[in-house]
Amino acid sequence: MAVLTYIQAITQAMKEEMQQNEKVFVLGEDVGVKGGVFKATEGLIEEFGEERVIDTPLAESAIAGVGIGAAMYGMRPVAEMQFADFIMPAVNQIISEAAKIRYRSNNDWHCPIVIRAPYGGGVHGGLYHSQSVEAVFANQPGLKIVMPSSPSDAKGLLKAAIRDEDPVLFFEHKRGYRLLKEDVSEADDILPIGQAAVKKEGSDVTIITYGLCVHFAQQAAEKLESEGVTTEILDLRTVYPLDQEAIIAAASKTGKVLLVTEDNKEGSIISEVSAIINEHCLFDLDAPVRRLAAPEVPAMPFAPNLEKEFMMNPEKIERELRDLASF
Amino acid sequence: MDNEQNKLVENHELLLEMYREMLRARRIDERMWILNRSGQIPFVVSCQGQEVSQVAAAFALDKDQDYALPYYRDLGVVLHFGMTTKELMLQAYGKADDPNSGGRQMPNHFGQKKNRIVTGSSPVTTQVPHAAGFALASKMEKKQAVSFVTMGEGSTNQGDFHEGLNYAAVQKLPVIFMVENNKYAISVPLNKQIACAKISDRALGYGMEGITVDGDDPFAVYKAVDEARKRALHHEGPTLIETVSNRLTGHSSDDNHLMYRTEEELDEAKEKDGIIQFKEYLKEQQILTDEKETEMEAEIKQEINEATEYAENASYADVTTLAHYVYSQEEAK
């Protein structure tokens, strides 16, 4: 065991997979000599050379598209989008191509690519370095979307994503990169994609969330613990396709559900979670399902007070939690 | 004329084989129109007028090593890479045994892994970065293979054209980009599509070789692709080839091209039809006899008749398979 930050765990996952399988390679802007703008690929070019750690031209559709071609060939590309906000030029490649290659070819071809991208705010990134883009991709069968909340999960899930036979979007919270740290196993642990995880057991209220918000939810839940309110926290981990069974179990357990996302509310991941609960848990609910999300504005502003107003935090969750517990 | 071209000119067997492949593509395409107009199949998108470029280019490749990333008109390319007439008819009817997609995609969305034909979609030009990806992978694996990707000239205005060509050029990847310039993007003529004189002029900006050839001249196309392949395998980078020919039909069975083309223009295009020119050349050179031609036509006709009947009687995919192969494993839930 060693204490790793969230970003070190990500680097470690890529490094281990590259050591084990020579078909794994990384490509993206600044991933080579610089080691990535956040240093996620730090040290990889020294160990694996520029043939497997490729600094690409500044062209996101090519990063995705070249990766998709190499994946169809039989390689295991890990493509980096410098910021999730900049994935938009690659959307056609991801949705029209990667997501549909297996289905459209009737299983003749497939596309085992991983596309990593830092998402999320709270880092003074303004409108275009702060976005949560998962909902854009979360109704595209053929894709999987993973959003880990801790260093251990990040490592185990990224390794699983690289070994997965289908395209995986892997969104990493950039504020979590150095904020989150914990003991991470040095073993070759793989976590299953598609499975949510109970991060905290409780019996009064349930929070269902993902990514950095899991961390905020844990802080909020601790506050209420001293007042005798215990919270069940379910971390979705894979936000598409959703782990319906785990959602139903967690919602039914307490009957009071708070859904949290950093993204804006309408059409978000938690809206789909709410729909699943409504379809399956009517007689187990003791209160209306609540959604705590960002306001309906395009993205979070740069000015610190405006950013803070937009951004999710433990206090906002605590307030909702307290209100819901007393319902 | 250089050595390679001389070799081709003197190889009468190969020339006849090339002619036969072009003719087969044309006759299959013509049959599909008949089937469409008689209500048997819902859609056709045609290769007519571009068979010479497609077949000549494909013959200059190594179909056992190279990867083809064709676009929807490339019947001539996929035939040479090994797709059969029967398989082409199965995809035209959208039947279960269509190797391209099992009837999931519209016709001419080619893909067949065993024949190194990479699956494609309808949004044009997405295959261009894929070709760079295949070339990157085969270079990493030190294979003597190139990726051969085609598109219409309209596609050269897409972002993926720029991103794909630039990427391949920077990394000197073994790719052959072949633009089949038929002078129309559905109804939009060339002068409304580009401001440069030739599509191949764009190569200069990427730092790669660019060449424009007469797409109706099989010798010129063969030579351009053969040289591009050698360049690619000698780590000298990709090549942009533009083959200029004419589209002899509407964009598809849903398009009436007389809305935007004149009868005179079409008549002129038909006179320049590369297949007819090639046939005349082969006859002049006494490589193709009338007897041989009749025999060839009869064989092809029989092959198409059998394929059509087979495809017509074949089954559609069972509706219970609708959810199969969204992801790996048995996803038939």
UniProtKB/TrEMBL annotation, chain A:
InterPro entries recorded: THDP-binding, Transketo_C/PFOR_II, Transketolase-like_Pyr-bd, Transketolase_C
Residues annotated as domain Transketolase-like pyrimidine-binding: 4-179
Cofactor(s) demanded: thiamine diphosphate
GO MF, one example: oxidoreductase activity
Superkingdom per UniProt: Bacteria
A Pfam family per the record: Transketolase_C
Coiled coil regions in record: none
Record keywords: Oxidoreductase, Thiamine pyrophosphate
Name under which the protein is recorded: 2-oxoisovalerate dehydrogenase subunit beta
Organism whose genome encodes this protein: Gracilibacillus halophilus YIM-C55.5
Automatic annotation (TrEMBL), chain B:
Annotated catalysed reactions: N(6)-[(R)-lipoyl]-L-lysyl-[protein] + 3-methyl-2-oxobutanoate + H(+) = N(6)-[(R)-S(8)-2-methylpropanoyldihydrolipoyl]-L-lysyl-[protein] + CO2
GO biological process annotation, one example: branched-chain amino acid catabolic process
CDD domains: TPP_E1_PDC_ADC_BCADC
Pfam families the UniProt entry points to: E1_dh
Domain Dehydrogenase E1 component: 20-318
EC nos: 1.2.4.4
Cited function: The branched-chain alpha-keto dehydrogenase complex catalyzes the overall conversion of alpha-keto acids to acyl-CoA and CO(2). It contains multiple copies of three enzymatic components: branched-chain alpha-keto acid decarboxylase (E1), lipoamide acyltransferase (E2) and lipoamide dehydrogenase (E3).
Homology family: Belongs to the BCKDHA family.
Protein name as it appears in the record: 2-oxoisovalerate dehydrogenase subunit alpha
Organism, as annotated: Gracilibacillus halophilus YIM-C55.5
